[in-house]
Queue: 2 jobs
Job 1
Amino acid sequence: MTQNIYDDETFFAGYSQLARSVHGLEGAPEWPVLRAMLPPLAGKRVLDLGCGFGWFCRFAAGEGAESVVGVDVSEKMLERARRETTDSRIAYERADLESFAPPAGSFDLAYSSLAFHYLTDLAGLLGRVHASLKPGGALVCSVEHPLMTAPARQEWLTDADGRATWPVNGYLDEGRRVSNWLAEGVVKRHRTIAAYLDLMLGAGFMLAKLVEWGPSPEQVAAEPGWAKERERPFFLLMSLRRG
């Protein structure tokens, strides 16, 4: 079973204070790029894997989706999602993505934001998601960039010139990583970019677009505190299609 860190009191309290938790999609700096990778949603059936507080579910419904199913392992996240959702087209389900099996041929779009890097059996989920999509359906997802998940200690260093430097070690050694982000003992799975692509293609998807996301110069000008985030990509964004 996936580590349900989001139901940890300390983690949940910290996560709830992040900009993306307070302001939703508009508080997620990668959202404009990820949004541009989405197909038209009007009249479509949408599946949100790792839906959290339901921000994307409500966005999809607002874009005219016929129905939206949001899935998450965290009861705390789903409790807030249900509380803030009034649209009857949106349904939430508690499930572990390690074993979740959506109905075959039921959806036009599967979406996932920053959830896949928690999973051990990502290959299994991708196969089941591929089967759940109608012909021509899409998968749009984001994960922490492998440069973020690779280091044994995921924290900034300062080089001899005083410049913020992100360490890269253990990149080719895939597997379990433990970090202290918002709470101690947060477990994630490191994969290389090639490994992510192999899993996606192996499940039957075709890659449409891949973005190694970091804040743009314009975003840094508006939020100077993000300047060091341009030293390495923060997220890996992917858009894929089911043949």
Note: The mean pLDDT is 93.
Job 2
Amino acid sequence: MKQALVIRHLMFEDLGSLAPVLQAKGYEITYLEAGSDDLSNINPLEPELVIILGGPIGAYDDQDYPFIKDELHLLEQRLKVDAPTLGICLGAQLMARALGAKVYPGNEKEIGWFPIQLTAAGAASSLRYLAQPGETVLHWHGDTFDLPQGATHLASSEKYPNQAFAWGNCGLAIQFHPEVTKNGLERWFIGHACEINHAPGVTVAELRQETEKYAQLLEVQGEKCWQGWLEQIEAALLV
């Protein structure tokens, strides 16, 4: 089977809707837990796919979290040869940093359900399934990044201009969270309780209400997005 290596920073921030799509495409999923599993011995080019998920730390916090250096090394090696790589939230920020771009705290937290706006390249990508009229996606971040030189800008939001970019044919970095599910977010509301309580204008009640309204559609459209991206990778690797 093809290997999908997934680096996770929090147990409850997992693959969500992406997991069944990967399994249907013939991938065996292996999670590595940042901070407890040794990331330094990973052969960067061995897994057919590498995915780095989100988390509350900064992509620039390697002094406190040395494993970030291992993640950056892994990403640098894969992105150099355009090996299939996906970064979500913190994973996207790490991809940006690995490509030489600056990652830094934003002006405000962006937590909640908000729409994205696609560039022309984004509208031609699999992200088109996430930006139909009336659709919103979940955002949960305080940091942002500059667009790496040579990357293709795909998406923005009202608060942050850089929400997604493509790298080559097989690299995708997404600041927001297309992978979340309604049931899975209940664990986020517990695990991120302190952050929610300190974020102005954000409450668990409101997040739960918006999740009830938007999550089911995102699960459906998210699966289409993932399927489209994996098909794009398969086509690129055949060339």
Note: The first strand starts at residue 2 and ends at 8.
